[in-house]
Amino acid sequence: MSASMNRRDSNCCTCDEFAPLLTKWRFRGNFRTRAQQLVQGEIGYIHDPSFSRLSYDDVRNVPDGQPLFAERDSGIPASGRNRLPIYLQKLYEERLLSPAGERHLFRLMNYLKYRANAVRSALNPDNPDRACVRLAEALLAEAGAIRDQIVSSNLRLVVSISRRYANDRTQFDDLVSEGNMILLNAVEKFDFSRGFRFSTYTTHAVQRHFYRQIKVRHRKATREATLGDSLMADAIPMPEGEDRRHRLAAQVNRLTSRWDECLNDRERQILEARYGLNRSEKEWTLRELSREMGVSKERIRQIQIRAEEKLQEFARREHLVPELDEFSV
């Protein structure tokens, strides 16, 4: 079948156009259930006007003379890779896509989803055509395999960006995990027809997300350090500045993870509101809390002081406050 194929045949479920895919992908289960899952699900793709004129044979192969993979690997040198966890080192065994290979895979992936959506739209879930169910599933499975290939070739990009933003191993692992989710979303949203490299598009998306997350964490650490000043500053000599803020925040993190053991619900609610440690991240005034809880401002202040004293005592009893010499200057 050529690019001039008849449009009325574009949704054919029994033609030979996709025979290789039907052989490659086989699924089991009740056809009616499978058809219902197809009809109820959404198939998102980036449309291209040429799709209606093209056959699978027109898009399945990389254009002549253009390589799928990049000839040179511009990743982290071997010495740098050795400092990464083993599971991340394996990412560098995946070959990078060439610009032509990248365009080809995105075009093919979206074309397959376009064709799958056309087949799905014609399905009757109560009396499904079995050939159409099989074809729609095979098209989506092949599109998913191509998506996975694109993702695998770009995972190292997320690692590289995460290394620039992370301050420690825990934060690095968190950023890699979050960056991978941004990468998966970027694959679904990238418009291959606009001429940009996917790596450029993804880098901007990941960096924007990291920047927002770091701002949120910075605000949270500042609020935790404020509470830490109230609870522990007199008990522990600490250096001033950013180092002090991070150390106090770390201690408050340890405390808040266990403060259910020493505070009642009202005490915890008041501390969370006063220091902005709840989901809203808003620091409530005594007046706002008194209206919300139906008691006087003075009563709110008394409960806050009592809760802070209980936390101080709990921290000492459970050895959550480091020894004095650990933080001596």
Automatic annotation (TrEMBL):
Q: Which GO terms describe its molecular function?
A: DNA binding; sigma factor activity
Q: Name one Pfam family in it.
A: Sigma70_r2
InterPro entries the record matches:
RNA_pol_sigma-70_dom (IPR014284), RNA_pol_sigma70 (IPR000943), RNA_pol_sigma70_r2 (IPR007627), RNA_pol_sigma70_r4 (IPR007630), RNA_pol_sigma_r2 (IPR013325), RNA_pol_sigma_r3/r4-like (IPR013324), Sigma-70_RNA_pol_init_factors (IPR050239), WH-like_DNA-bd_sf (IPR036388)
Q: What keywords would UniProt list here?
A: DNA-binding, Sigma factor, Transcription, Transcription regulation
A GO biological process of this protein is: DNA-templated transcription initiation
Residue ranges occupied by any RNA polymerase sigma-70 region domain in the UniProt entry:
151-218, 262-313
Q: What is this protein called?
A: RNA polymerase sigma factor RpoS
Q: What is the lineage of its organism?
A: Bacteria, Pseudomonadati, Planctomycetota, Planctomycetia, Planctomycetales
